[in-house]
Design goal:
Blueprint lengths: L11 E3 L6 E3 L3 E4 L4 H6 L11 E4 L4 E3 L2 E3 L8 E3 L1 E7 L15 E8 L2 E2 H9 L5 H4 L5 E3 L3 E2 H4 L6 E6 L2 E7 L7 H11 L7 E3 L7 E2 L5 E6 L5 E5 L2
Parallel strand pairs: 3-15, 5-11, 6-18
Antiparallel strand pairs: 1-2, 3-4, 7-10, 7-16, 8-9, 8-15, 9-12, 13-14, 13-17, 17-18
The structure holds manganese (II) ion.
């Protein structure tokens, strides 16, 4: 059997202290998972179970990249997030079983066309187009659990041109990493290679052409990104 054209290369991420790469299957994202961010988006976080959306796997961009400002938006936002890399399949598991399916952790930015998202919300349309555009998922290298352990606390921040815009602690997640994995596994078989972007703290803000972005989570290598002029 031959394909009519060469199939796409599997998107992947570097793994720290390894020449092997982490193949990406899907990118699952959690919405509004820090209280102060939920409030800044006009929602009461206490009333809402976790909810999910997805980005295509090939929206991944590695640290150090320079990105074009995306088309058809005037309000591109950064959302710094802890990313969980799933290492083995699971389905309808309890949160007490979840962490053994985690291969590692990374720093990601859920780039968002906020104006497009707001219009979609207003019209009760899907969000996808505001979240899954080309290069919308910058992500640092995967740090294996064997090297960094599980990340349940520690500073998470993003700075733009040296000015800190989001600065909180991972322990402020409304739904913890094990709970998120358990919730997502209610509806789908999570598989090795799936990434979960766990939600962003307060302080989401606009990015402009020429911006120099740095994202960090305590214990993980810094993520760097530039928006071209
Ligand atoms: Mn997000």
């Amino acid at each position: 059997m031959n394909f009519v054209f060469p199939p796409a290369i599997t998107p992947s991420l570097a793994i720290t202290n390894s020449c092997n790469r982490f193949p990406i299957r899907r990118i699952i994202c959690v919405g509004r998972n820090y209280e102060a961010h939920a409030r800044e988006m006009g929602k009461d976080p206490a009333r809402e179970a976790p909810f999910f959306f997805m980005k295509p796997a090939d929206t991944i961009v590695e640290t150090g990249a320079t990105l074009e400002y995306p088309p058809n938006t005037a309000d591109l936002h950064h959302e710094i997030e802890l990313v969980v890399a799933i290492g083995s399949s699971c389905f309808q598991i309890d949160s007490s079983e979840a962490l053994k399916h985690v291969y590692g952790y990374a720093i990601g930015i859920d780039l968002t066309k906020r104006d497009v998202q707001n219009l979609a919300k207003k019209n009760a349309h899907p969000w996808d187009w505001s979240k899954g555009f080309d290069n919308s998922a910058p992500c640092g290298p995967i740090h294996p659990v064997s090297q960094v352990g599980h990340i349940a606390k520690g500073r998470i921040y993003i700075s733009v041109n040296g000015i800190v815009k989001q600065d909180q602690d991972v322990q402020d997640l409304i739904w913890s990493v094990p709970e998120i994995i358990a919730y997502a596994s209610r509806d789908m078989h999570l598989m090795a290679g799936d990434l979960i972007f766990t939600g962003t703290p307060a302080g989401v803000n606009r990015l402009e052409r020429g911006d120099e972005i740095e994202g960090g989570i305590e214990g993980l290598d810094v993520l760097k990104l530039t928006i071209s002029r």
